[in-house]
């Protein structure tokens, strides 16, 4: 299965890419695409909302925070082209959820297995900090992505903002929020037809270079995911 936006939601993908709900984010993503980073001056930046990607029959969703300024906002594919992806995709490859560890652009040959990757905010935010209103604006897309994944069993939350954004969705309104606490390795079986949740520290450079998130810690997350699948 190719690593593309699910075929059930091609119309959604087109609508998302043309979204202009958040003026601050529209201005910022386009400014980053114009100014560029010196290392990528010869590249054309995507500079639009970044769709999720993965397999149409994925049993696992990975939910992060937002595209990176010179990663996904440049390449047009979630977690691709920056330090977070350089940590994420090798782990997915080791666990059998990706055919390769390399993730540099949309034509690099990467194929995901049983996995769909997205984020609570589909546009790059200034200082990597979307506002609560911007996350709410983007929730309509995440809801539709969830609805398209008809075989979904579980969600891996990369960071607390991802967890908070998920729990704010209409489809999770029955969950007792006070009982859900973020922590690396925290697991919640929600019941009521909802997917289970597994939390992990975000594979950002801030976490990986400080040792807050190590390869063995991250590998354990994906080993647990494999064991949870039925």
Descriptive account of the structure:
The protein has 230 residues and is α/β, with parallel strands linked by helices. It has one domain: Uracil-DNA glycosylase-like domain (Uracil-DNA Glycosylase, subunit E). It has helices at 10-17, 23-35, 72-75, 83-95, 132-148, 160-167, 205-208, 215-228, and strands at residues 53-54, 60-64, 115-119, 154-158, 187-188, 196-200. A six-stranded mixed beta sheet has the order 1-3-2-4-6-5, with helices on both faces. Helix 4 (83-95) packs across helix 8. The model has no long low-confidence stretch (mean pLDDT 93).
Which structural traits does this protein have?
230 residues; alpha/beta; Uracil-DNA Glycosylase, subunit E; six-stranded mixed beta sheet; 35% helix; globular
Secondary structure layout plus pairing:
Blueprint (H helix, E strand, L loop, with lengths): L9 H8 L5 H13 L17 E2 L5 E5 L7 H4 L7 H13 L19 E5 L12 H17 L5 E5 L1 H8 L19 E2 L7 E5 L4 H4 L6 H14 L2
Parallel strand pairs: 2-3, 2-4, 4-6
Antiparallel strand pairs: 1-3, 5-6
Helix pairs in contact: 4-8
CATH classification class: Alpha Beta
Give the CATH topology: Uracil-DNA Glycosylase, subunit E
- The number of distinct structural domains comes to 1
Strand order of the largest sheet: 1-3-2-4-6-5
Number of helices: 8
Largest sheet: 6 strands, mixed
Radius of gyration of CA atoms, rounded to a whole number = 16 Å
SS class: alpha/beta
Please give the alpha-carbon distance between the first and last residues: 20 Å
What's the mean pLDDT score?
93
The percentage of residues in β strands lies in 5-15%
What is the CATH superfamily classification? Uracil-DNA glycosylase-like domain
* Helix and strand run: HHEEHHEHEHEEHH
Helix share of residues?
25-40%
């Amino acid at each position: 299965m190719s690593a593309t936006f699910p075929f059930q939601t091609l119309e959604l993908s087109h609508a998302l890419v043309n979204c202009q709900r958040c003026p601050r984010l529209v201005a910022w993503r386009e400014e980053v695409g114009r100014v560029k980073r010196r290392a990528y001056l010869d590249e054309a930046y995507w500079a639009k909302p970044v769709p999720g990607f993965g397999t149409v029959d994925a049993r696992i969703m990975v939910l992060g925070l937002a595209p990176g300024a010179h990663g996904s906002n440049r390449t047009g594919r979630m977690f691709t082209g920056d330090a977070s992806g350089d940590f994420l995709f090798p782990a997915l490859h080791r666990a059998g959820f990706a055919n390769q560890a390399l993730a540099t652009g949309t034509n690099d040959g990467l194929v995901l297995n049983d996995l769909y990757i997205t984020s609570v905010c589909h546009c790059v935010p200034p200082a990597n900090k979307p506002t609560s209103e911007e996350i709410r604006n983007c929730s309509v897309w995440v809801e539709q992505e969830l609805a398209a994944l008809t075989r979904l069993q579980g969600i891996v939350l990369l960071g607390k903002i991802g967890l908070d954004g998920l729990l704010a969705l209409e489809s999770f309104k029955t969950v007792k929020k006070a009982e859900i606490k973020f922590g690396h390795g925290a697991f919640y079986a929600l019941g009521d037809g909802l997917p289970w949740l597994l939390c992990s520290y975000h594979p950002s450079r801030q976490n990986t270079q400080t040792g807050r998130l190590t390869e063995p810690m991250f590998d354990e997350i994906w080993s647990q995911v494999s064991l949870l699948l039925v």
